[in-house]
Input
Amino acid sequence: MIAAEVIADSISPQGVRLVTIEATMHRFVLAELNTHRVFSRNSASSRAIPVAKQLEKVISNAAYPVSWPSEQPGMQGGSELDGEDLFEAVELWNQVHYEVTSRVGAYLDAHPEKSTRLHKSVLNRLLEPFMWHTVVVTATEWDGFWWQRCHPAAQPELRVAAEEMRSAFDASTPTPVAYGEWHLPYTTVEERRATPNVDWRKVSAARCARLSTLTQDGTRSLDADLALFARLADRPEGHKLFEGDPFHASPLEHVATPHHPNFRSTQRGNLRGYHQFRHEYLGGF
Output
């Protein structure tokens, strides 16, 4: 289930490469991925996915460890368990997986009325150790991530994901993006040409917010994308900070344009040599 795909790959007139990668990895290593501050990232939320849907995924395709190392001092495991020791370790995961999924399933059956049960933002947390997690990452600086997370000392589950991401990165060819043009993940040249009057920066940001989830029974809907963007970033005139719904600005960070060298700064946010749509649209938010 670990996988990675380059969604958009751009190179500026100054030769700075900007890459967006969608990757699927173990949920329990997400915190380690999120320590890399050079990344703009969005991912599926345990607060948003219905419990029954998440439970079905965890039962049919649980995220088990890729390695079964023995205990030893330090952060890295020792030699791989084998024989009876390996069997008992795997069986421990099997038993906990069965116990958690069975109890959550029984709880849902006992509380068919949603108003009588825990919200998914709480209940789904019990399933997280067994979840696969999809994340979209955009960055100009990748070497530190490759160096740290592709290293033999890295957590094995994150190392395998990082290696998949690096392989996808190395196999991709960047597309030149001129000053005034935009890096637009989850959009294609063909659809942009077919509908030139649409603000594709908004569409791209909305699609990053929902990853690559399709609407309208498997077809893209520009109306749905623009409506989602409005919920993320548009507020009525006179809207005050901390009044009503807050901005959800992080998806706008994946959309960026090369920063012209005549501008005073060569970097806005975390992308070197690019100006992010977040700053273009929301200023300091």
Remarks:
- DSSP finds ten helices and nine strands in the chain.
- The two ends are 35 Å apart (CA to CA).
- The longest helix spans residues 83-110.
